[in-house]
Design goal:
single chain; about 375 residues; alpha/beta; TIM Barrel; Lyase, Ornithine Decarboxylase, Chain A, domain 1; 2 domains; five-stranded antiparallel β-sheet; 11 helices; binds pyridoxal-5'-phosphate
Length: about 375
């Protein structure tokens, strides 16, 4: 089978990934860039995207889980990698032996990494994460003194080296949000305390994609970019990908599976939430919520088929949905584009996010495991 004749497939343009990394490096010229490739590179394929990002000058890779970081090493990727979402009993020793930087937000994690380093007979690379206001992962300011003291002691005994001090924004995608300067101040304070106590980080970092694009004072030594690497806008308020100098890397395409005429008054798909007004042609698109097409976009999601952008008619089902061609012509086997690049006249992941009342991050990340990824410019 020809892959591009598949039922549905995600085309990933690795040249777009490279171009986005270069564009982001120009936005933060004095900082290194970490390409965040968690969640299989937001659905784009972690190994292929990590390689492309490194080729374009991303000197760090970032993942949420240690398993994701270890998978990068297993695929032969070298260079600094940070992972930040740990639970007790995690693969600390494997991570230490693979030279992966591990994030530490609390004393329990420092204890586990010290033990792993002793068992491995190595010095673990750890980065201390500060909660400067996000209220999610990271160490609270009130607990920072104890964590820094314990980390400095572990550093003296040789089990760990503190390679980074870092934090994460809550509202960087809302320019002007009052929490942003407050978090920057808290970060500078917590960083200054750690440095006073003897921590000499290689990298200090807090900026995600929206902060990289809008907030130069947040760039420090390293910017951590995820969504922007994939050419998706972090938020509609920040502009379209083209306005941000980015190119969408993923296009979700399907082959029209059936075209048929139906009479007026014909209900379409489960629940008959769409009823034809006149005799019309329906095109069956063989992709559904099992493939990551959001059911919440029923009756609203846009699809380029028959030469125009049409709207999903009725419910998105598990494996398929229907488009009313409304006078346009399409044939079985024609290409239908659910999202791609607005510069090519295609609907976008941002459009689907709006239709499904969610964010574009979720649209690309949830493209299902059943959907083959087809790489361009690998
Ligand atoms: C996901 C994530 C990022 C990347 O965020 P984007 O908005 O996609 O750039 C950066 N840092 C942390 C801690 C994350 O979890």
């Amino acid at each position: 089978m020809n892959e591009t004749a598949a039922r549905v497939y995600a085309e990933i343009d690795l040249d777009a990934v490279r171009a986005n990394v270069r564009a982001l490096r120009e936005r933060a010229p004095r900082s290194a860039l970490m390409a965040v490739v968690k969640a299989d590179a937001y659905g784009h394929g972690a190994v292929a995207c990590a390689k492309a990002a490194q080729e374009a000058g991303a000197s760090w890779l970032g993942t949420a889980t240690p398993e994701e970081a270890l998978a990068l090493r297993a695929a032969g990727l070298e260079g600094p990698v940070l992972c930040w979402l740990w639970t007790p009993g995690g693969p600390w020793r494997e991570a230490v032996e693979a030279g992966i930087d591990v994030s530490v937000s609390a004393l329990w994690a420092l204890e586990e990494v010290r033990e792993a380093a002793r068992a491995a007979g190595m010095t673990a690379r750890i980065q201390l994460k500060a909660d400067t206001g996000l209220g999610r992962n990271g160490c609270q300011p009130a607990d920072w003194e104890a964590l820094v003291t314990a980390a400095v002691a572990a550093q003296s005994e040789g089990t760990v080296r503190v390679t980074g001090v870092w934090s994460h924004f809550a509202c960087a995608d809302e320019p002007g949000h009052p929490s942003v300067p407050l978090q920057l101040t808290a970060f500078r304070d917590m960083l200054a305390y750690a440095e006073k106590e003897g921590v000499e980080p290689e990298v200090r970092h807090i900026a995600n994609s929206p902060a990289t694009l809008t907030l130069p004072e947040s760039h420090f030594d390293l910017v951590r970019c995820g969504i922007a690497v994939y050419g998706v806008s972090p938020a509609p308020e920040l502009g379209t990908p083209a306005q941000l100098g980015l190119r969408p890397a993923m296009a979700l395409k399907a082959s029209v599976a059936l075209v048929k005429s139906v009479p007026p008054g014909h209900g379409v798909s489960y629940g008959h939430h769409y009823v034809t007004e006149r005799e019309t042609s329906l095109a069956l698109i063989p992709a559904g919520y099992a493939d990551g097409v959001p059911r919440h976009a029923s009756g609203r999601g846009p699809v380029l088929v028959g030469g125009r952008i049409h709207t999903v008619a009725g419910r998105v089902a598990m494996d398929q949905f229907v488009v009313d061609l409304d006078g346009d012509e399409a044939r079985v086997g024609d290409e239908a584009v659910l999202f791609g690049d607005a510069e090519r006249g295609e609907p976008t992941a941002e459009d689907w996010a709006q239709a499904a009342h969610t964010i574009a991050y979720e649209i690309v990340t949830r493209i299902g495991g059943r959907v083959p990824r087809v790489y361009l410019n690998g």
